Structures are given as structure tokens and as C-alpha cells.
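Something for you to look into today, if you have time. Could you write out one complete protein record for me, on any chain you like? Leave the record below and I will have a look.
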Amino acid sequence: MFTVKKYQNSDCTLWDAFIAQSRNGTFLFQRKFMEYHHDRFLDYSLLVYKNDDLIAVVPAHQINDSLYSHWGLTYGGLVLPLRIHISDVLGLFAAVLRFLQQHAITALHIKEIPGFYAMGYSGELAYLMQLCQAKITRVDLLSSLDLHLPLQLSKSRKESIRRGQKKGLIIREEADFTSFWNTLLIPNLEKRHQTQPVHTLEEITYLYSQFPKNIRHFNVYLEGQLVAGTTVFDTGRVAHPQYVAGDDQRSETGALDYLYDYLITEVYRDCRVFDFGISNENQGKNINAGLQFWKESYGTQPVAQHFYQVDTAHFSLLDSVLV
């Protein structure tokens, strides 16, 4: 009844159309986004059919005998249609595991899609993981802001926003990422975390050209000088600052708080969730206390994002679930 096949370039139109109509897919799973880093990963994405109908996709890449949710994406796993019977979810996932085992893939590593990205409830994956005796290999803690609830800013955040107003800060939405990337983001990441942005300047510029409605960039200026900025990924339901950086005087000027207040109350007020992302370090085992405190001062609430490892040989554990 269920057929699994590996993604090929000829499947692009079908894949993208499915993502656009899915319950929990976002523009990050569109092929033009996924393939910006095709040279870094060996793509091994899957399409699952019931008879002749596409009913699920799995964005993934292969490393040796394991399959992973794409490391270049914030989340991954099982992308499903808006409506699907749990019996079909059980069957298609068993088919995926069986297919992988037959192709010498022994483990499937899934970085789950946080629930608030989905249209409605989407709890099938957690249930499947329990049935398949999956291991939880990591848990990150996201700070999310429900934009349908009244904004609960701390006193310090309100003071910082007022400081930005008094300073006469100017916010501009811009299509050129160059100044922010080279002047603020790269030096900030090198100094604080000894790392580089996931996307190079050339890559983010390309992605913006392909997804101008989903990727937006905002810079903050003080007397003509760039002092802060952020690049936001917008799925329509969720707004997530993918990159944010400020200069060394951002606390004195209130630049970041002034910017975030503008994004939350003006630009993305019609979204369902403002996703501040994680404050985790050391593979989720530690939390950057200062960063977490700053996010919580906006009234954010914690959402856990689980990373799973599934033994593909466990497909048989799904055979006797329905009684």
C-alpha cells in the first residue's frame, strides 16, 4: 500500500506543491532553500506514496549508514498533509524505516519541527518515537512568544525601549545584507562564540532573492551609523529572527530592544508566534543564562525541541499497534 522513493530533481515541482499544502511544512523545506547547501550534504530526502498519492515527505541527508534531518535547517522530520488518518501515519513511517533498512541505513536521526510551526495540532511524531523505542539524543529549549496574548514586558525592557526612542534610533528594512553581515554579525559571532554564520553573505543574498516574502532584514541606525540589525525568517504563522547582532553600545542605546519591540508590535503582529529561538549551548546541555533572561523579559514561554535517534530495524514494532 505504501511506497517510498528517494527524491530526484524531477520531483521538485511535486515536492514543493506538497510542502505548500502540508500541515507542518515551511518554506525551509522548499527545494530552492534546501539546495543552497547541496555541496555540503548528500541529500537523501524521501517521498512516501499511498497507492499513487504523495502523503508524506522526509527532508534528510545521509552520512555513512545514518540519515539525518538536514543540519543546514532549523528543524526537520516527517512532513504531513493537513488531514491524515493515524493508521496511515503508522503505515507510512513503518514503510520509511523498512526502506532505509533495506538500503543499509541503520539509524534515522530526527530534529523535530516545533509544534507551533504546524497548522493545528501535530503530535504524531512523539507517539511514533515512543512506539519505535527511539532515543532522545538532545533537547533544546526554545523561547516562544504567543502573539495572541497580551505582551508582558519587564520593567527593564520597557526602559530600554524608551531609551531607544529618546536616542532617535531609525529602523530601516533593507535588501542589502552586506553591512550587517560584515560590520556586526561576523565580528559578533567570532568574538562571542568563535563561530561563523550558518549562511555566508552570498548564500543569504541568494535565499532572499528566492524568498523575499519569507526573509526580511532590518537595520537600526543612530545618527546614520549602523548599530544593530536582524534577519527574520517568516513562515506566515511564525516569525523567527535567524540572525541578530548589535554593536558594543547596544545596552546604552537600547537598539535591540527598540528593534524587537517594533517587530513584535508592528511588523509581525499578525503572526501567531514570535520565535526567539534557543539559548542552548553544548548540544543542549547548557543554557546561556544572560541570553535566556533577556528573552524571558519579553514574556516568552519555553517550548522543548527533541532530537531523536530511531533504529530502522524497529519498523516491525508498528505492525501491531492497531487492534
Observations:
- Residues 158 and 257 are 8 Å apart (CA to CA).
- The two ends are 19 Å apart (CA to CA).
